[in-house]
């Protein structure tokens, strides 16, 4: 008569994995979030999918707003200074860049309000919050170089913001991607001017 030994290994209980969007064979909307969107009208564009990141996103945008405003001031300064140096073509381009940076600032401020925040235009803290520095150079090459440095800083900053936001806020991400594209154009123009 043979005796069978019972296995002493405990049997593992396999828990059913919670269904996720990745494991579902069908895509389903979150009806609870849709109901919350129906009921929270005072939040405007802010729906539940924004989650806990909205304040962080507002802060990133406010710091970017400060950067854009400092860039406007720097480009305006360089516009008028370059005119005095008899460099009308570059002076005109500095003005165009200043206007485009102002457009970026306006779009960022508008998005901050849409997210339920307040755009921070305080002149007392602009330079401290800006990622790029103000520059009052008098030499044309130094102006171009300072603006190129600022554009490269903006490019790096916006690239990081896009990565940080990811899929947390697609509207803000698209806005920042659009601004980034314009900053890249500025950097290429400035690089070409510096080489001349």
TrEMBL record:
<dbReference type="InterPro" id="IPR009078">
    <property type="entry name" value="Ferritin-like_SF"/>
</dbReference>
<dbReference type="Pfam" id="PF00210">
    <property type="entry name" value="Ferritin"/>
</dbReference>
<dbReference type="GO" id="GO:0004322">
    <property type="term" value="F:ferroxidase activity"/>
</dbReference>
<dbReference type="GO" id="GO:0008199">
    <property type="term" value="F:ferric iron binding"/>
</dbReference>
<dbReference type="GO" id="GO:0005829">
    <property type="term" value="C:cytosol"/>
</dbReference>
<feature type="compositionally biased region" description="Basic residues">
    <location>
        <begin position="1"/>
        <end position="15"/>
    </location>
</feature>
<feature type="region of interest" description="Disordered">
    <location>
        <begin position="1"/>
        <end position="26"/>
    </location>
</feature>
<dbReference type="GO" id="GO:0006879">
    <property type="term" value="P:intracellular iron ion homeostasis"/>
</dbReference>
<feature type="domain" description="Ferritin-like diiron">
    <location>
        <begin position="51"/>
        <end position="196"/>
    </location>
</feature>
<dbReference type="GO" id="GO:0020037">
    <property type="term" value="F:heme binding"/>
</dbReference>
<protein>
    <submittedName>
        <fullName>Putative bacterioferritin (Cytochrome b1)</fullName>
    </submittedName>
</protein>
<dbReference type="InterPro" id="IPR009040">
    <property type="entry name" value="Ferritin-like_diiron"/>
</dbReference>
<dbReference type="InterPro" id="IPR008331">
    <property type="entry name" value="Ferritin_DPS_dom"/>
</dbReference>
<keyword id="KW-0409">Iron storage</keyword>
<keyword id="KW-0408">Iron</keyword>
<dbReference type="InterPro" id="IPR012347">
    <property type="entry name" value="Ferritin-like"/>
</dbReference>
């Amino acid at each position: 008569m043979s005796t069978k030994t019972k296995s002493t290994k405990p049997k593992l209980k396999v828990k059913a994995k919670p269904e996720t969007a990745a494991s579902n064979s069908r895509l389903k909307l979150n009806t609870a979030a849709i109901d919350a969107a129906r009921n929270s009208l005072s939040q405007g564009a802010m729906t539940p999918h924004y989650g806990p990141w909205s304040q962080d996103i507002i802060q990133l945008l406010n710091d970017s707003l400060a950067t854009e405003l400092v860039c406007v001031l720097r480009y305006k300064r360089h516009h008028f200074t370059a005119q005095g140096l008899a460099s009308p073509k570059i002076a005109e381009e500095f003005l165009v860049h200043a206007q485009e940076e102002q457009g970026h600032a306006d779009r960022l401020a508008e998005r901050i309000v849409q997210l339920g925040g307040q755009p921070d235009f305080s002149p007392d803290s602009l330079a401290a919050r800006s990622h790029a520095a103000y520059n009052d150079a008098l030499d044309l090459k130094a102006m171009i170089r300072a603006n190129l440095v600022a554009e490269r800083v903006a490019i790096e900053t916006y690239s990081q913001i896009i990565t940080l936001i990811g899929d947390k806020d697609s509207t803000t991400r698209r806005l920042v991607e659009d601004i980034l594209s314009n900053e890249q154009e500025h950097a290429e123009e400035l690089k070409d001017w510096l080489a001349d």
